[in-house]
Design a protein that fits this description.
It contains 30 helices and 17 strands. By secondary structure, the protein is of the alpha/beta class. It folds into 3 domains: about 5-210, Alpha-Beta Barrel (TIM Barrel); about 220-385 and about 415-480, 3-Layer(aba) Sandwich (UDP-N-acetylmuramoyl-L-alanine:D-glutamate ligase); about 490-705, Heme Oxygenase, Chain A (Up-down Bundle), CATH 1.20.910.10. α8 links the parallel β7 and β8 (about 190). The strands form 2 sheets. It has a 9-stranded mixed sheet with strand order 11-10-9-12-13-14-15-16-17, sandwiched between helices. The chain has an 8-stranded parallel beta barrel with strand order 1-2-3-4-5-6-7-8, surrounded by 7 helices. α2 runs parallel beside α10.
Length: about 700
């Protein structure tokens, strides 16, 4: 019988406690458990029969129900109408062949196995006698004190690879083992305490199933904000932003507004007691992974939200402090402003606009970006939080954002998108940020992803044509344009995917004789000088390609970065090469080799196409591979260097492992991955190809001297 073995519950009455086995099974099956094994060594056969009848009513049509060891009880429960799908037998239990004979060809029969001898016995059985093996224990476990020595992941892998039937891992298995066991060949994971002792078996089962399927659980994000009947801002914008960024959106309404794309006409605030009822209804039933808080109309409403936060302590809290209207009017009275300041102490991130930033800090509004970041740092220290300071209201061609703490700032740049359809951008960005954080991104990656999505939504906003005032952003532009269910990969996704795509190139570079001998200092001087001579030729042309990237850059910050890179390639790196070569009478003839020519031809061809995205993708491997290799050479990971000042090539190794180069590399990676994330699929593919080809040229460049 074919059955989904992926998430397999083995019951333990003691661990289930007062709530009982049936209650745990009901919740676990609702969360995604696909097989339930009733195991109760202390119960009589008669008690097992009654339990099987009770559990059958829960599992029928939703999960397979099998019993541990008790063949006669399984037969009796079936006779009394229970839907019992099969049995799991230990090595010393009833005969597998007898169980198959009595339960029939469609029954699920599992067998414990934890040695190669057990596998030999299984191979001696007729085909179809056993459906799967329970292999373990994986780790020591108290639920079976007499267990054999723990196999560990690798021990399981060896048995699963040799087994003639699917293997389920059992014994001390926790949620963090799921990925490794699946990769080791498991057909599923059987858990006991991880579910029976779980505070919330349904939620834990969901986590196990999501991990097994290799996907992140859908973040459950609650928006607490006012309603916008035109759909562009407030609760409506939050729900769209959460959904567009892969979350499940929930909404608690703090205020009803009469508004459209021209502005707000009237506001009605329901009683704070009803707000509390909404919040309690959600939290009594659905775990909340992140909260985005927007419009809170008065002190009573703010107090209700604060009490709920203090009681339930959600993991992620993003507060968009709606205090000042677009026209500059104050929206909160003094009591509400005071209550809001108290609420901000509960926030992980606050996202004020520039006017709200000034109000919270008690300063005059500023249009100076540096001063805005300084003000944000003061607020970050005051409220012990992160401040997202937004530059959308600044003048100029750039629209930067920054995540500011008391200790510093992480800045994110981008060219201004010229459109009047900006209604609800603040609401949408903060809701997207909360969602990406709940999905597991750190705050920097969460903002990169949220920004990339919002910029895509702004680019397409005019296509909607909603209203005659400031229209809304196009929250689902990515879905509509690509016909998929998700938007572009996040910058973090791009980073990991691209790095993995050149994994073989990186491994090959590590094993090259040139690299190994460079690391241990045995590289022949003439080979090193030959490498430097070709690298000097390369750097001269590479600087021109970096200059082209600067020319094409859409923002002044990116333009400055690539221009500085071009300058550094000549003034720092090339000078170092020249100094080495001038001191060597045996320096080789400085003519480009075939390898150097091929690499430069690739860079030039990409540059001549005039695509900024492809140019920066093509120049990235020179940063990324050198920085990664330089750090590892510096540490001695590939040989003996490890800061030895007597190493013959120490000065060269130090250049590629210094902090300035590492910072420049991270900036370059950030620019490229952000552009790739926001690009169309076709552009992203062209960028990846330019990147991969350049990486392969880097490998050839390192190989050439020897």
């Amino acid at each position: 019988m074919s059955v989904d073995l992926s998430v397999y519950l083995v019951t333990d009455a003691a661990l289930c406690g007062d709530r009982g086995v049936a209650a745990v099974v009901r919740e676990a099956v609702a969360g995604g458990v696909r097989v339930v094994q009733l195991r109760d060594k202390a119960a009589s056969d008669a008690e097992i029969v009654e339990q099987l009848i009770e559990l059958s009513a829960i599992t029928a049509g939703r999960a397979a129900l099998i019993v541990n060891d008790r063949l006669e009880a399984a037969i009796e429960a079936r006779r009394r109408g229970a839907h019992v799908d099969g049995i799991h037998l230990g090595q010393g239990d009833a005969s597998v062949l007898r169980a198959r004979e009595l339960l029939g060809p469609d029954a699920i029969i599992g067998l414990t196995a934890n040695t190669q001898e057990h596998l030999e016995a299984v191979r001696m059985l007729p085909t179809g006698a056993v459906d799967h093996l329970g292999v373990g224990v994986i780790r020591p476990t108290s639920t079976k004190p007499d267990h054999p020595p723990a196999l560990g992941i690798e021990g399981f892998r060896a048995i699963a690879a040799a087994s003639p039937v699917p293997c389920v891992a059992i014994g001390g298995v926790g949620i963090d083992d799921v990925d490794a066991l699946r990769d080791a060949g498991a057909a599923g994971v059987a858990v006991v305490s991880a579910l029976c002792a779980a505070e919330d078996p349904r939620e834990t089962a969901r986590e196990l199933r999501a991990r097994w399927r290799g996907i992140g659980r859908v973040p459950r994000v609650l928006s607490i904000a006012g309603s916008d009947p035109s759909g562009g801002a407030g609760i409506q914008a939050d729900v769209k932003a959460i959904a567009a960024n892969g979350g499940y959106a929930m909404a608690v309404v703090t205020a009803l507004t009469a508004q459209n794309t021209h502005g707000v006409r009237a506001v009605h605030v329901p009683p704070a007691s009803f707000l509390a009822e909404q919040l309690d209804a959600i939290s009594d039933d659905i775990p909340v992974d992140a909260v985005k808080i927007g419009m809170l109309a008065n002190a009573e409403v703010i107090g209700a939200v604060q009490r709920w936060l203090d009681t339930h302590e959600p993991k992620t809290v993003v507060i968009d402090p709606v205090m000042i209207s677009t026209s500059g009017d104050r929206l909160l009275d003094s009591a509400a402003e005071s209550a809001l300041r108290e609420l901000l102490l509960r926030a992980d991130v606050i996202t004020p606009n520039l006017a709200e930033l000034a109000t919270l800090a008690g300063t005059e509004p500023t249009s100076d970006w540096t001063r805005a970041k300084e003000t944000a740092a003061v607020l970050a220290a005051r409220f012990d939080t992160i401040v997202l300071v937004k530059g959308g209201h600044l003048g100029g061609d750039d629209a930067p954002d920054a995540l500011v703490t008391a200790d510093g700032a992480e800045e994110f740049t981008g060219a201004r998108i010229f459109t009047d359809a900006t209604h609800g951008t603040g609401c949408s960005l903060s809701a997207a940020l909360a969602t990406r954080r709940a999905a597991g991104d750190d705050w920097n990656d969460a903002l990169r992803s949220a920004r990339a999505w919002l910029r895509e939504s702004l680019h397409a906003a005019d296509d909607l044509g909603i209203g005659h005032g400031n229209g809304p952003v196009h929250h689902f532009a990515g879905l509509w344009q690509r016909g998929g269910l998700v938007t572009s990969p996040t910058p973090a996704d791009v980073r990991s995917q691209w790095w993995e795509r050149i994994a073989q190139v990186r491994a090959d570079i590590d094993e090259l004789p040139f690299i190994r001998r460079l690391a241990d200092g045995t590289l022949e001087r003439i080979a090193f000088l030959d490498y430097l001579a070709q690298d000097a030729i390369y750097l001269g042309e590479y600087a021109r390609v970096l200059a082209e990237a600067a020319r094409l850059a859409p923002t002044s910050i990116e333009q400055s970065f690539w221009a500085n890179g071009a300058h550094g390639a000549i003034s720092v790196e090339l000078q170092l090469h020249t100094a080495w070569l001038r001191s060597a009478p045996e320096a080789p003839d400085a003519r480009p080799s075939a390898v150097t020519t091929a690499y430069l031809d690739h860079l030039r061809s990409v540059g001549y196409r005039g695509s900024y995205d492809e140019v920066i993708a093509a120049v990235l491997p020179c940063y990324w591979l050198y920085a990664d290799l330089g750090v590892r050479l510096h540490r001695g990971d590939l040989g003996a260097y490890a800061l030895d000042p007597e190493h013959p090539y120490a000065s060269w190794l130090q250049t590629y492992a210094d902090d300035a180069f590492a910072r420049a590399t991270e900036t370059a990676i950030g620019f490229v991955t952000a552009r790739a994330s926001a690009a169309t699929e076709q552009t992203r593919e062209r960028m990846l190809r330019a990147f991969e080809v350049a990486a392969r040229h880097e490998r050839a460049f390192f190989a050439a001297p020897l």
